[in-house]
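Field log, afternoon session.

UNIT: design team B
ACTIVITY: writing a sequence onto a fixed backbone
BACKBONE:
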């Protein structure tokens, strides 16, 4: 630890110089940085030197010690103050306590008295710094991916199921600052083109991007589903557009600079100046996001773009079929990556591109066969049981009318995505069961982490994080912490092991950090719990 800086303010030169010279500062972990004969002269020096400890007399000309202490603690709230005084009047001590003075010593002050006061102050500074480090470490552990409570909050926020008052109350509980004049939402997804597993390059790009977003207070990140994220952008009328462009640019740069073939898409909603408007804003972004299935080679979509002729063909040109949209791979791609709530938008746009051509019976039949074949191919790639395909996918025949084609497309896509998700659910359950089994066996390992567990079961950490919170109801870190705390409580109540031994046994290298986490989660210290001062709920 760095030396703790000390400044002395004392009007009696003999006392001031005596204190300065009689203490072997470095021996006790201190550095003497300066002195002054009164508070008026001391104040600018303290502002410049920013000491950790101020030793000051109470009665001094121009500015006394209490006035100096009151002023500097406002500017340097972590500054520790040791007051020395020739008065034992309780009123002085009372005022010193109100200001937050650390130690109150009566003159004459001996070397032993001062060293004891300094050592006590040093111990408190070290403890406070450790607490700050522990808080930072604790927050980092939980912030690396997501807390389930945050995800649930944002799900309700974009559903529009909370009042403005409830939004602010819930955000305050989660320490989320949502105050702004304007808002928008950007949705994005990044996937590997060359891999079917969830441990490829896209995971590394996504994690790097998430870490960068967390550095900006104007961006609040939350997960939409296993593969997609949303960024809530806060700003004012002047800055919001710039922040939107910066957000999209960050995603583009991460994906384009990656040494991998990535399938990535971004969609931006319509800005709102109300928190209550975020639900509509999200729906706008989600509608734009659905067009990635229609235009898979395009990366960025906005609600404004959807009004252009490219997305809404001129009715005078409906006889011109868009061959690109008719590409059967579009159907296969949608079954692979689409969601239930995107089926309507996708089907409407797909059918609109074919208007004027469905009056041909042969073309309709060819289209229906193409849809069915590509749905089946996509589901086989998703490892859906072939027998289940034949039993569940809707059928058609040569008599299917022009009006019925759109309904068939909606029905077959909805059925296919439900089958795909059911199969993914089974695989996800297997993955989580493997992960939980591994964690239950290794939670006491010091080096266990989301990354190490993901590597053990051969999926990406990001994908494991999403599955874990969905299926277990806790984030990865919350689950491990819960396991460790449960074991610690058993050991505290049923053994005579010391706190340090218990910390080591459940995976904490630092016993004091274990105590910090225990108190954070249980509301009491390990010793208080052991002594029965807190009852089980």
């Amino acid at each position: 630890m760095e030396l703790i800086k000390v400044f002395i303010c004392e009007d009696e030169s003999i006392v001031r110089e005596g204190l300065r010279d009689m203490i072997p500062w470095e021996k006790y972990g201190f550095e003497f940085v300066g002195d002054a004969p009164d508070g008026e002269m001391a104040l600018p020096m303290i502002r410049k030197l920013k000491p950790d400890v101020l030793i000051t007399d109470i009665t001094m000309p121009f500015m006394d010690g209490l006035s100096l202490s009151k002023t500097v603690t406002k500017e340097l709230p972590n500054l520790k103050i040791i007051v020395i005084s020739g008065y034992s009047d309780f009123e002085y001590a009372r005022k010193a306590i109100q200001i937050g003075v650390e130690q109150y010593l009566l003159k004459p002050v001996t070397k032993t008295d001062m060293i004891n006061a300094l050592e006590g102050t040093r111990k408190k500074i070290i403890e406070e710094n450790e607490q700050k480090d522990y808080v930072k470490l604790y927050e980092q552990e939980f912030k690396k991916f997501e807390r389930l409570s945050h995800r649930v909050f944002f799900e309700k926020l974009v559903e529009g199921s909370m009042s403005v008052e409830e939004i602010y109350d819930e955000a305050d509980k989660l320490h989320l600052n949502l105050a702004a004049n304007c808002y928008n939402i950007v949705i994005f997804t990044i996937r590997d083109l060359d891999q079917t597993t969830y441990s490829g390059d896209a995971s590394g790009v996504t994690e790097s991007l998430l870490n960068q977003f967390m550095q900006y207070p104007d961006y609040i990140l939350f997960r939409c589903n296993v593969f997609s994220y949303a960024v809530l952008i806060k700003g004012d009328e002047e800055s919001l557009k710039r922040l939107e462009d910066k957000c999209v640019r960050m995603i583009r740069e991460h994906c384009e600079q990656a040494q991998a073939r990535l399938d990535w898409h971004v969609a931006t909603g319509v800005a709102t100046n109300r928190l209550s408007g975020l639900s509509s804003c999200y729906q706008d972004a989600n509608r734009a996001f659905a067009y990635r299935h229609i235009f898979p080679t395009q990366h960025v979509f906005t609600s404004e773009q959807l009004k252009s002729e490219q997305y809404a063909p001129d009715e005078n040109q409906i006889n011109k079929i868009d061959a690109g949209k008719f590409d059967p791979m579009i159907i296969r791609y949608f079954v692979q990556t689409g969601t239930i709530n995107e089926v309507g938008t996708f089907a409407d746009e797909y059918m609109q591109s074919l208007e004027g051509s469905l009056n041909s019976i042969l073309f309709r039949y060819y289209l229906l066969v193409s849809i069915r074949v590509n749905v089946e191919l996509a589901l086989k790639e998703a490892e859906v049981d072939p027998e289940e395909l034949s039993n569940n996918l809707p059928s058609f025949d040569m008599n299917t009318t022009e009006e019925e084609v759109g309904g068939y497309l909606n029905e077959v896509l909805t059925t296919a995505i439900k089958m795909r998700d059911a199969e993914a659910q089974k695989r996800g359950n297997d993955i989580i069961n493997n992960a939980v089994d591994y964690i239950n066996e290794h939670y006491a390992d010091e080096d266990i982490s989301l990354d190490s567990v993901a590597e053990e079961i051969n999926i990406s950490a990001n994908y494991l994080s999403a599955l874990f919170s969905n299926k277990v109801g806790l984030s990865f870190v919350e689950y491990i912490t819960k396991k460790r705390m449960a074991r610690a409580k058993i050991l505290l109540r049923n053994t005579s092991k010391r706190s340090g031994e218990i910390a080591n046994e459940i995976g904490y290298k630092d016993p004091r950090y274990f105590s910090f986490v225990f108190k954070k989660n249980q509301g009491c210290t390990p010793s208080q719990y052991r002594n029965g001062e807190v009852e089980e709920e």
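LOG NOTE: The mean pLDDT is 83.
NEXT ACTIVITY: expression trials, pending approval
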